Predict the 3D structure of the following.
Amino acid sequence: MNKLALTLNVNGQDHDLLCEPSRTLAQALREDLGLTGTKVGCGVGDCGACTVLVDGQTVNSCLMLAVQAAGKAIVTIEGLADGPKLHPIQAAFVEQGAIQCGFCSPGMILSAKALLDANPAPSEPEIRQGLSGNLCRCTGYQKIVQAVDAAARTLRGERTVG
Amino acid sequence: MERQFDVIGSRAPRLDGPAKATGQAVFADDLSFPGMLHGAILQSPHPHARVLSVDASAARRLPGVKAVITAAEVGTVKYGVSPARYDETLFATDKVRYVGDEIAAVAAVDLATALEALALIKVEYDPLPAVFDPLEALAQGAPLIHDEFPGNVCAEVHQEFGEVEAALAKADYVRTDTLKNKRQDGGFIETHCAVAVPDLNGRVTLYSATQVPHYVQRNVAMVLGLELSKLRVVKPYVGGGFGPKAEATPLDYCSTALALATGKPVKMAYTREQVFLHGRARHQFIHEMTTGVTKDGKLLALKHRAILDGGAYTSFGIATVYYSGSLLGGPYRLANMKYDGLRAFTNKPACGAQRGHGGVIARALFERQLDLIAKELGIDPVRMRLDNMMEVGDVTCNDLNMSSLGMRECIEAVRDGSNWEAKKGKLAKGKGIGVACGFFVSGAGYPIYRSETYHSTVTLKVDEDGGGIKVLSASAEIGQGSDTVLAMIAAESLGVPLELVRVESGSTDFGVDLGAYSSRQTLMSGHACRDAALMAKGRILASVAAELGVDPDDLDFKNGVLVSRGPALDIAPLRTRYRKEHRGWPNLPDGEALCFAEAARIAFLAQGSIVGTGQYKPPQLGGKYKGAAVGTSPAYGCSAQVVEVAVDLETGQVRVESVTDAHDCGRAINRTAVEGQMEGSISMGLGEALFEEVKFDQKGRVVNPSLGEYHIPTIQDMPAMKCIVVESDEPNGPFGAKEVGEGAIMPTIPAILNAVYDATGAVITELPLTPERVLRAIRQAQAANK
């Protein structure tokens, strides 16, 4: 199969790639760019573990072809922290006990980011709606909801991370 | 309960939280090695067939294929979970017994080539009649799945404690009820994965997404004929286990065999569909219970029959069929109990262990029946449970010792926390409230293979500069938080802040640990960790005491500094020695007391590296009868839940609106982690009650092998949960701690069933609670009332 040359902008940096047209964005991120923070739990868009942001929107990267993401701004979990300083959403997930096995956490955190970017003060039903594409088997979601709420308050300047 | 702790009982964030929040945590599929090959397994499309021939010659000729293995290459050493019941071979030789049974495996330069090669392997099958229903499998004339097991009976258990028939004859009220569930799936988000990396000395490192590095090491070495020392098993971060990752998988065996055959690293992973085909999750249980009580609700006797659909192989099934009976011994006083359990083979993937191993559906029916009895006798269900509750020090009829039991406190906590008395019998039409209790082991009393082995060893090493502590453990952090628990136990035992401790776990190089199953890591590995820390601390204090000329028994560390119960200490000479070694360093300790780093450095200068070791195996546990090894444990966790539901009486749709949960975990090491286990357990129980069912077609194929079609709870399905941590002081647990990870699931299904009954009067005898099933039961209840 002929490979295609494309440029992926990931976490603000351009990467030139040669890849097969059938390569998914998840494969390109994980295998070509070594960004293994993006997880794949099902490969068919059911679980949301592979969620990344493409032009600010959540996308199941296992369902998007790498070529479809060319020229767009892709944010992965590796792009959230500011050096060693966790993003407030990441800090809230750690602090609130919203992480257990951690396999869903990158996707969950990116869905939370898309939600809070669009709606800085979501209600609990809005948080649940915003994360409804991400499955977690460990937590029962309660501490995840609490973490997103805590992060929203931090981002609004109403609390500092403890 | 007066004792004060500095680290234990806090809400310390998980040690691995930042790594997991940033994507830095490495899971098995994130690993990559130079020259790594990709493997794939050929699985049977038939549920039951003779294998006449396997021809892999065309696959071997495909460019890019590096190795193909079949039974001819790897042999036919039998394996399984319990050595007495080894009934699997890596690849089928004579027969395949379920859709998914393994035939061969390939390693190639990439996954696409490996899959292409699988398609080139020619297998000649002679299909045989298959059987999928456990009752049909047990009927006369059913196709025989294993020649060694006539009648497709995998295992039978017959136990009687006390005199059940005599007690039932004396009962004022006796009733019989039934319940059956459906086969379930673990639903962990990370599929199984294994990466085997050979070296040039004939050794292999197997990175596996497993709950049990120790058993994986033993089984893979046994099946492939390797010396144990040639195989190191390392568990990277694991994306959830819940039981189905508690045994070695064909990926573990195949990747290791292919790595040895090719001399290259080999990665293999299951697709989500293959997770369903591998199975090893919750059995289908068919329970019938007959319970007799006095007119004031005192439990007299339980007669219990269970049939388990085991699938094609034994896996954990022997333990499952025992647990299914034994865990009803508590938490109520029940002097007479008879259990007849039978596990059938069928032509489906094998079932194994899953959270609440063996006990979940039995518990659901028993708690359901308690409510039906309470209603008949006009007793409040909470009252009925409290009146029958065991107390600390009681021993069940099957010899389980309640060394701690906060069961009464749990029921009272959920009764009051849910405002039960204001709600029971007073809710609007279609709304219901239900209560249930649960009970589970805190670590299996015996290893899976017969051995006097320690169940856990821990090595704790103090940095030579004194500044930090490393815990080395072969235990399995699978998300439940065991690394953090071990760090907290080490910090508390040493008397240092948590930040000083780091944990390396999950490698068979670090010792023996039986792994993350039967809710054993906190109690067993925690014991070993505490003892290792105390040994290291003793060595440090001995050196410091000798230098200071005081009695070491008068010294201790608290919050990272040396404290004396005896005379005031003159630490100046020791501090001077420490400072001389650190000329030019900023931020040297200058407090009044000697800090841990100074003391540990002084000890190193005197003794060399400071290492402590600890090991644990359970004390002699009760029970001499056949099967007593399953269910006996050093301690038992217990819990109660109150669930409120809304049932749409027109459609049968059930919605769980709130859950109030209380769990006695002994002393809570980490409160946030305890709540996390409680909340996760409720979620899994809710899914199993309302949605979850692995479905098969007429040819034994899983028809819903995806997380979209097999519905685990989403964030929209989960109600508000109020979790109340009830603490007891478990004498057999480190710092009084015991389990929470599995026992917490026990009350969820029956509490939901009881709440649905409260809402509708409908008696439901089959899970999950699909709208059509609920609606049918509502209509039957309505018709009966007319």
Summary: Residues 4-79 of chain A form a domain with the Ubiquitin-like (UB roll) fold (CATH 3.10.20.30).
